[in-house]
Write a structure and sequence with these properties.
Order of helices and strands: EHHHEEEEHEHHHEEEHHHHHHEEHEE
Strand content: 15-25%
Number of helices: 14
Largest sheet: 9 strands, mixed
Number of strands: 13
Shape: globular
Distance between the termini: 15 Å
Length: 432
């Protein structure tokens, strides 16, 4: 452990450079950028809480969904990857049994008294509810909790579709796991703890994909048939081998009042499952569903049926994407990506909210991607949808044109060229 001053000197002296290169898939310029970012975060902590404190630093990445759009909450199959954008937390334990988290860009710190771990209705939708929920669940599972002061900074933009909320809650879980539990909880368990906090305390009925991708890291497939024991498989994936870059474009839409849109996807899928006496669609036989569509649509409505069709198809696609990557069949991979995008747009219907028909940034991003890329590469909406991001796999020869088109439409620095990160949530040390 180092004091803030000692840690700054270690970072400035290059002792963390190898860790930065690994975490962020960074060249020398990227390492220098992270060095400056970490020093600024430690300095901000010292200004808030004092320079004599011994501190640790934790990192939790954002994620991109590759396949299996809105399938996780019905125990489906997904393919996802951690990316080299993250939230970092500079942390020091305190003896007050209080967690304080001051995040860059926010005027006030979130403060949670660990003597009160009940659900607070007035906290729903706020970061403090995630902190309280993660702590509560760790305690329920027999883990230890304790107070800490933290300063966080994130380049996983809020509302960007890269899941800033998952990175935040997984980061809080990683801190409590490292500082008070000697890392006794596995990455998958931290993901489950984080999902619990988001569902029960934050009030968002999310699945488990975002948290698992952030907590585990790498490119992975996740089979949620048994959500208490999801099957996670790493998939070696180097896009540069195929001359492709992963581009994520933030279409700058607002997620402010979209919670009910997200919730409707899950509830409508589950209404179809309920027709068959099941809780989730994964428990329903696909052939039986298609044999009974006429009756199902009369009971649940056509949109629910279309979303169920999307669920079954995208679960198959997630497995097919994994197999295509393993076989090195990039043409098959690209076709599956585009097919999945069509399914999300046409059947799952999460390209835009019907409450705001004039705001269709995601749909526009998809259209522009098709216009630029034509019969090369691949593109799709990803994540929760309705607002947020476009994902594209762009050939190098079209990368400059693609970035220019996206940023002319959605603003400067809206298009990110990312890498798959091979680490999930970690305590950042000189040797990873």
């Amino acid at each position: 452990m180092f004091t803030t001053g000692e840690l700054i000197e270690r970072i400035r002296g290059g002792h963390f450079d190898a860790a930065f290169a690994s975490l962020y898939c960074a060249d020398a310029q990227g390492v220098a950028k992270q060095r400056a970012r970490y020093i600024a975060a430690v300095e901000a902590f010292a200004e808030l809480y004092g320079s004599a404190r011994e501190v640790a630093v934790y990192s939790a990445p954002g994620r991109t969904e590759i396949g299996g759009n809105h399938t996780d909450h019905n125990n489906g199959i997904v393919m996802a990857a951690a990316v080299n954008l993250d939230i970092i937390a500079v942390v020091s334990q305190n003896e007050e049994n209080v967690i304080r988290v001051k995040s860059k860009g926010f005027s006030a710190a979130d403060t949670v008294d660990l003597a009160d771990l009940a659900v607070h209705g007035n906290e729903q939708g706020r970061s403090s509810s995630l902190i309280r929920g993660v702590a509560a669940r760790i305690k329920e599972l027999g883990g230890q909790i304790g107070g800490f002061d933290a300063y966080t900074t994130s380049d996983v933009l809020r509302g960007s579709g890269l899941s800033s909320s998952a990175a935040f809650e997984v980061g809080i879980g990683a801190v409590l796991n490292g500082e008070y539990n000697n890392f006794r909880f596995t990455p998958v368990e931290i993901a489950q703890i984080s999902q619990y906090a988001e569902n029960v305390y934050f009030g968002k009925p999310s699945g488990l994909m975002d948290q698992t991708a952030s907590s585990v890291g790498s490119a992975i497939t996740i089979d949620f048939k048994d959500p208490q024991h999801p099957v996670v498989e790493e998939v070696a994936f180097d896009l540069s081998t195929y001359g492709l870059s992963l581009c994520i474009t933030d279409t700058k839409g607002s997620h402010a009042d979209l919670t009910d849109d997200y919730a409707a996807i899950r509830s409508e899928m589950e209404s179809v499952a309920a027709f068959f006496g099941k809780k989730v669609l994964r428990e329903v036989e696909e052939a039986e569903f298609f044999a009974n569509i006429a009756t199902v649509r009369a009971k649940t409505g056509d949109r629910a049926v279309l979303r169920a069709i999307h669920f079954f198809a995208d679960c198959h696609r997630a497995e097919a994407l994994r197999d295509a990557v393993r076989a090195g069949d990039i043409a098959r991979f690209e076709k599956l990506i585009i097919d999945g995008g069509h399914s999300s747009f046409e059947y799952n219907q999460n390209a835009y909210s019907i409450k705001h028909p004039t705001e269709q940034g995601v749909a526009l991003g998809v259209a522009l991607s098709q216009h630029v890329l034509g019969d090369t590469g691949a593109w799709r909406l990803q994540g929760g949808g309705f607002a947020g991001t476009i994902q594209a796999f762009v050939p190098q020869e079209k990368l400059s044109q693609y970035i220019s088109t996206m940023e002319q439409t959605f603003g400067a620095d809206s298009c990110y060229v990312l890498s798959v990160r091979n680490y999930g949530a970690v305590k950042v040390e000189e040797t990873l």
